[in-house]
Automatic annotation (TrEMBL):
This is Exodeoxyribonuclease VII small subunit. GO terms for cellular component: cytosol; exodeoxyribonuclease VII complex. It comes from the Bacteria. Its EC number is 3.1.11.6. The keyword Plastid does not apply. InterPro entries: Exonuc_VII_S, Exonuc_VII_ssu_sf. It is an enzyme of class 3 (hydrolase). SUPFAM superfamilies: XseB-like. GO terms for molecular function: exodeoxyribonuclease VII activity. Gene3D superfamilies: Exonuclease VII, small subunit.
Length: 64
């Protein structure tokens, strides 16, 4: 699998907004909705990991 570009937290939020818009469409199939939902879950997980890392970095800086 090719290396994917690392997304910023802002990029992830933008992608999630796009997924939500697609899922709100009246023409989307149930199968496509599930695919988008799963993609969204992965993005939320990635975003949470990035936020946790930032929080840990802030804690380290505060304790120096």
């Amino acid at each position: 699998m090719a290396n994917k570009k690392e997304l910023s937290i802002e990029d992830i939020y933008d992608k999630l907004d796009g997924l939500i818009e697609q899922m709100d469409s009246d023409d989307i199939s149930l199968e496509d909705s599930f695919k988008l939902y799963n993609e969204g879950l992965l993005l939320v997980k990635e975003c949470n990991e990035k936020i946790e890392k930032v929080e840990k970095d802030i804690e380290v800086l505060e304790n120096e």
